[in-house]
Each structure stands twice: as C-alpha cells, then as structure tokens.
Write a structure and sequence with these properties.
single chain
Amino acid sequence: MRTIRILTLSTALAWAALASGTTIAAPPPQDARAWIAVSNRHAQVLLDVLARVAPESAGQFGVTGLDEEITNLTAEAGVRGREATTAALMALQASRKTEEHLLVRQDLDILIRSAQTNLRAGRLSENRLLPYTDVTALVYGGLRSLLDTQVAPARRSAAVVRLRKYGGLVQGYEPITVQAMRLTRARRANVDLLPPARPQVERDLANSPILIQGLEKLFDEYKIDGWRDPFATLKQQLNDYQQFVRGEILPKARTDFRLPADLYALSLEQVGVTLQPEPLAAMARQAFVEIQAEM
C-alpha cells in the first residue's frame, strides 16, 4: 500500500483495479459522487488493520494517531494481525452482499481481493519461508517517516518515542532486534523453510551502516531533543543484529534467487499479474526468440 489519500481512497483503488485488469465502469457526474464517501468508509476497514500491523506506515494510509507506535515482530503479533485481517475480510464481504451501488461494489471487490491476498501471503510465508527481517531498514523507515519536511514540526518529536521503543527503553517493549532474532531462531531448525537469498542479505548488510548514519544526520538536521542516548543504545543493538545476520543467516542463505512456483505466482498476483509463472515464462521466451529473429 502506498500513499492513498492524494485524491480519494476510491481513486487509488480504481488505479489498483486497472493494474490488475479489472473493468471499471465510467464514473458518474461530479455532483453524483456521494458514493465515494461510502467507498472510503469501506476502505478504512482494511486500512485500519494494515496501520495497526505496520503503524509506521499509518500516515501514508491516511490513518492518524499512530506516530508513536511501532511494528511488533513477535509470532503472537503475527497471529493477531491475521485474525484482524480475517475479521475485516468478513465485514467487507458482508457489506458486498447488501451494497447496491455499482462503483462501491467494484471497490469492495478490490478490497476483498486485497485482504484475501494478504492472508494467503501470510500463510505461504509462514509455511515456506524462514523468518528474516532487515531490521535496520524497518527502523530507518519508521523514523524517516517522521523526520521529513512534509511532516508537521509538532509531530517530529514522536520519532524519539519510536526510537526508545525500538531500543526496548520503554516499559513493556523489548528491543526490536531481540524480537527479530527470536523469530528466526525459533524456526531455523526447520529444513523445509526457504532461507533468504544471499544477494538480498549481503545488500542489507552493506546498506545497514549507511542507514544508521543517515538517521544520525536526520536527527541532527531537525534538532530533535533527547535522541542521542537512546540512539546510541539502538545503534549498538543494530550492530549486534548485523553480527547475528552474518553469523547465523548469511551462511544458510540460498544462492539461487528463484522462488518456488507458488510463491512466485503470489508475487505476480500482488502486482496485478494473474498469469501463472510457467505460461508467463513461455510468453517471455517466445518474445525473446521473435526479437532475435527480427535482429
């Protein structure tokens, strides 16, 4: 999900539908667009769930009040996220049964497919992939979303709260690096789980010091009070996490970047491609042969 409220949620959904090949009916006249408010309310059902699962992105979804919240990487949080998505899906499906407006029904269909895809992606990831998180990138994104010229100055101080929570310096929170390591270690004995690709892990390791340095510059630039001590703690935790990745994940990383067919098909579906991998690959090979012949 990207920035949704540039125009309306319904407009963004329409663009998503076009990308996936969905037929969209011609829009009604400007004075007949009360349906957009209804459609936005339906979209908010799913956006609220997405914002709770990844609160660092809440502002991009148009959800307010979550500037101080952070992602939870525990297995229990994953279960709660799937349960919340399932409840949202059921609510959207119930609304679809009674909705009479054509365009609202089309938006509901898009939302329902999105929720179903998210749930399927969660199940496939749990069953097929070794848990691995680029924690430095997650932290950078969460803090960078607040330390920005487009963010109101009054909101930027929330970055320090997030910083302290990432480092486990707030009561009830443990370091996010500890969560990530525990999640991986709990499942690394399962040889059936696919580890991350080696080029991805190496790229994450190479980028980590750059991102940490970038955060220091951002806190300095925006002159946020009280960030240095908690940042020093978090910086050490992130460095320790890099050592964990080098020692326990990189040696197990796969050298073949290709995904199994079901995971690859899901990746295609998430970007609006409904073809299965094999037919798509056959089309690509045929196109390549034709281009070679023309040359």
